[in-house]
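> tool_call: predict_assembly(chains=two)
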Amino acid sequence: MSDIAERVKKIVVEHLGVEAAQVKEDAKFIDDLGADSLDTVELVMAFEEEFGIEIPDDAAEKIQTVGDAIGFIKSNAKS
Amino acid sequence: MFDLSGKAALVTGASGGIGGAIARALHKQGATVTLSGTRADALEKLKGELGERAHVIAARMDDAADIDRLVKDAEATMGKIDILVNNAGITRDNISMRMKDEEWEKVLQVNLTGTFRLTRAAMRGMMRRRFGRVINITSIVGVTGNPGQANYAAAKAGLIGMSKSLAQELASRAITVNCLAPGFIATPMTDVLTDEQKKGILGRVPADRLGTPDEIAAGVVYLASDEAAYVTGQTLHINGGMAMI
């Protein structure tokens, strides 16, 4: 399961161009990692592709930190 | 200039006079085109005329599920949508005193809501690929108004405001969103006007003639091109000088 966390962090680093060290579980995409609202949409799209899941809009809105994303994917990922 | 080779375009309302000309022009510049509309026979005929790089997917703009299916099928068929031309539109003319709720709602639903839904569905792939051209066919009456067309003018004005908002949201992803506003264009829709009506219209057109669908299509080709990458949130008026805004 820690694999999921690593994959999520890798996507965040690639997408937002931030240092891996900054991508802590309590880091907020917008406030701490410099994402804008469109970046958060793209991150969700990237998570959907990477993990083969669908993240509905109401769930996506609640994903505000790296940990939120990992948590959602852990409880919804097929593999 | 304006080479569209390798680009994939979805054109709605492609069975109409202006939509057909737009599809032909994009195709001529090298784009693969998907023709959409409600009249499957007319779309198939145009596809036959274009030959290769042309596909038909019929869809209704007043049906949300149909719109999602259209985008999915077009992306599956062409591999992507680079250029979206929202040209589908209807009229239900009536003076406001007599305009029924259904006439108002139908026009708003097809011309404005349908366009928003289709654009929203298509922008996902455009964002991912960091390229997109959305061209919304509005109308001169969306800017000037027109008696008997409160519903149509409202929907067309709505497209302009919507496009400006989308343009700001998507500019950083290299997606441009523009409107093209035709004036009076010679199409089957204007063929039914009487000579007297035409004379009345031409009295307001400095160019002293109706425009042609090809003259609208040329504007679409420009807005769809790589050369127009820095043009976004704009409305291109093609109207023979009928209104200068």
